[in-house]
Design brief:
481 residues; mainly alpha; Sodium/glucose cotransporter; 2 domains; globular
């Protein structure tokens, strides 16, 4: 019966997605929803897209195994990204009237930088989208009592998300995520109210967590620990700023004011509401210690779903799994569309000889084909990550290393430093990659004095400064001669 309700929910989501497809008449509708969305829709999209599988399953699992400091990348870094983007990037980028974030790199630094950053941005989404699809597989596995394997669940989940994203594009993402945000907020608050009744309130849960040092946050006072802590914050806090999904939500706004405050409000809401899954998962220690011990030993990501399934009435289970599916699907659809749009607009389109005369409807067709191909890649990566036993939280953390190293410094310098040049962008990318990739490959995780992506980020800054200032000096010498 529970599985039947879940299937009904999926059908409703598909119906909304297919309705949204009727609003798509050209590529701009598909990619940016006609730049017509109001504040409450933009805020809902930002919140629901980032409030994903890692927030409900991955973050609580990490908190149970480690402490609050283990969450420095998400939700702390993730919330920092959204607030910073809204305050310092949304207005400037909105005024440029771009179609994708990759268009900025072309206009500011040229075609080569556009292609490199476009590929880097698209690749970064493999981990994030795969985390959502992996979570869908986990949900189907739990709901069916193992009758549907997690691998089969991944295939089912990927197919469902593909169907309504493929046809409706950004309109589909906008309407479905607004519906799904309502389900997420009401559903999880209702579940939290039921669970608090079983634990004697919120205070006993907080006291138990404090007694077990779960609120330990700051790193040890040594250089290695502090650098690792800062790196964890900046990997998502900075690395997820040059992302198409964040840009796309701001760019779909009806004006620049909505672009700014819709993003900021969504980031604040995400940070505050991320505490709810933490409370729910940790409550298992008081409600059923044996269950908590079992799933912490086997797979901590399944603790919260199993707690709900084993201790709450059927209606509450329906509400929880509806909210969980809303969480996953809202993130999966948005993060599936974003890299596909980036690849079609900033990488593939230019290789077509008639690019400057490419009809709008043909760009729309190309984008939809890329959505299909990217879904296949995501599914394969999800199945591979499952074999490697990579956790959902870790998959999301890994996603932003590439954009921190390759895309963040050119974006900031291009917007805020007039002396930044194309040569500086090339040097930033080259030095960042040359530092990050060897360290990532040859140094065991946590074995070096500095995290590989943080070293790459610092060298990207050096490359931008050296390349741009050197370029300026060369031009002065040529002018003098």
């Amino acid at each position: 019966m529970l599985l039947g309700f879940v299937i009904l929910y999926l059908v409703v989501s598909l119906g909304i997605g297919f309705y949204a497809a009727t609003k798509v008449h050209n590529a701009k509708d598909y990619i940016a929803a006609g730049r017509s969305l109001p504040l409450y829709i933009v805020m809902a999209m930002v919140f629901a897209t980032w409030f994903g599988a890692e927030t409900v399953l991955g973050i609580p699992a990490t908190f149970m195994e480690e402490d609050l400091g283990g969450l420095i990348s998400d939700p702390f870094g993730a919330s920092l990204c959204l607030i910073l983007f809204g305050l310092f990037f949304a207005r400037r980028l909105y005024r440029m009237n771009l179609l994708t974030i990759g268009d900025f790199y072309r206009e500011r630094f040229g075609r080569n930088v556009e292609v490199i950053t476009g590929i880097a941005i698209a690749l970064s989404y493999l981990g994030w989208v795969s985390a959502q699809v992996t979570a869908l597989g986990l949900v189907f596995n739990v709901l069916s009592d193992g009758q549907i394997t997690q691998q089969q669940g991944i295939l089912i989940g990927a197919a469902v998300v593909l169907m309504y994203t493929l046809y409706g594009g950004m309109w589909s993402v906008a309407l479905t995520t607004f519906f799904q945000m309502i389900v997420i907020v009401i559903g999880l608050l209702y579940i939290a109210w039921l669970v608090s009744g079983m634990t004697g309130g919120v205070a006993p849960v907080i006291e138990h967590a404090a007694g077990n040092a779960k609120f330990h946050f700051w790193p040890e006072l040594n250089a290695v620990a502090m650098v690792a802590f800062i790196s964890g914050l900046l990997t998502m806090g900075f690395g997820s700023i040059p992302q198409q999904d964040v840009f796309q939500r701001a760019n779909s706004s009806k004006n620049e004011k909505v672009a700014v405050w819709g993003t900021v409000a969504g980031g604040v809401a995400y940070f505050l509401f991320a505490a709810v899954p933490l409370f729910l998962a940790y409550s298992a220690n008081l409600i059923d210690p044996a269950l908590a011990a079992r799933w912490l030993a086997e797979d901590s990501q399944k603790l919260l779903p199993e707690l709900v399934k084993g201790h709450l009435p059927l209606f509450a289970q329906v509400v929880f799994y509806g909210a969980l599916l809303s969480v996953i699907m809202s993130t999966a659809s948005g993060t599936l569309l974003a890299p596909s749009v980036t690849l079609s607009e900033n990488v593939i389109k230019d290789f077509i000889t008639w690019r400057r005369h490419l009809p709008d409807h043909q760009l729309l067709v190309i984008t939809r084909w890329v959505v299909v191909v990217f879904t296949v890649l995501v599914t394969l990566y999800s199945l591979w990550s499952l074999e490697q036993e990579t956790g959902i939280h870790q998959m999301v953390e890994n996603a932003y290393k590439v954009t921190l190293v390759l895309a963040f410094v050119p974006l900031v310098a291009g917007l805020y430093w007039r002396r930044a040049t194309t040569r500086g962008a090339h040097w930033a990318i080259a030095l960042g990659m040359a530092t990050w990739i060897p360290m990532e490959v040859w140094l065991p995780e946590g074995d070096g004095p500095i995290p590989p992506q943080f070293a790459g980020f610092l060298m990207a800054i050096v490359g931008m400064l050296a390349g741009s200032l050197g370029d300026r000096r060369r031009r002065k010498e040529e002018a003098a001669a």
